[in-house]
Amino acid sequence: MKKILLPVLLGLPFAVSQLFGGPEPLPSGKEMKSVVQPAVEQECNWTGFYVGVHVGYGWGDLKWTDTDTNTFSFEGTDPPDLSGPTVLVEGSAGGVIAGGQIGYNRQFGHFVIGAEGEFSYFGASDTGSMSTESWVNRFKTESDWVGTVGLRLGFAWNRLLFYAKGGGAFAHHDFWMTHTVTDEGVNNHTERFHADGTHIGPLAGVGLEYALTCHWSAKIEYTRMFLGKNDISGTNVENDVTPAPPEPEQYEMDFKGVDTVRVGLNYKF
């Protein structure tokens, strides 16, 4: 009997304390503040390397001029007028532009300075023609790619970056011309000319970029490329029963300015 009562008597005080002790005390206010801390917002800026993609539209006026009138005349005069350069056709080319960019920014307070390079597919094209009673000329100009390098100077305000850019642009073009003689006679024939070239000129533009996060940003940008006048040299080939040997031919192409509007997305490392 003693062996049974002894454990019961020893455990009785513990049972009473558990019955009347109540719940655990709540933590104090100081302990609560130390556990729950407000999240510190990460400070973002524009400094760093970045890569991105863009898409948009480009357009511009152009003019073909015959600067080498020794091969044949386009004036339709008899005898031919070989007195000097002749404007052959004027037009406007436009098309989709899409590609990527890479660059670096450095922020000093509200001011941001950076360098950027872009390379893009450019699908601009233009066709035109001129004719007389005795011949028809058809012209085609195509752009296939364009690249730019330049500096950016901007002003940062909250998540927005307003910037201007300047530098150089280089664009590649293909040129075709078909000269078909339609006069009633034995001299009816077709001559075809083709040339291509990369043209270089200054670049200027402005843009607006918005920081979506500390790493991602979206932009919209307008640029103008001043490619100017360029000589295009190629071979004039006559297609006939007894074709004449190929002859060198030279024209002048005047790009009066190529404008682009692009939207893009950048990722900053």
Would you mind describing this structure in some detail?
This protein has 269 residues and is mainly beta. The chain has a single domain (46-72, 91-268), classed as Porin (Beta Barrel), CATH 2.40.160.20. Helix content is 10%, strand content 64%. It has helices at residues 2-20, 29-35; strands spanning 48-66, 86-108, 111-122, 125-131, 135-157, 160-181, 190-211, 216-225, 228-239, 247-268. Strands 1, 2, 3, 4, 5, 6, 7, 8, 9 and 10 form a 10-stranded antiparallel beta sheet that branches. The chain is elongated and about 95 Å long. Residues 4-9 and 71-78 have low confidence and may be disordered.
Short précis:
The chain is mainly beta and 269 residues long. Helix content is 10%, strand content 64%.
C-alpha-based Rg, rounded: 37 Å
Helix content: under 10%
How many individual domains? 1
**H/E topology pattern:** HHEEEEEEEEEE
> Given the structure, what is the number of helices?
2
**Class by SSE composition:** mainly beta
Q: Within the CATH hierarchy, at the fold level, what is the topology?
A: Porin
The low-confidence runs, each spanning 5 or more residues with pLDDT under 50, are 4-9, 71-78
Q: Describe the global form.
A: elongated
**Distance separating the two termini:** 81 Å
CATH class value: Mainly Beta
- Give average pLDDT, whole number: 80
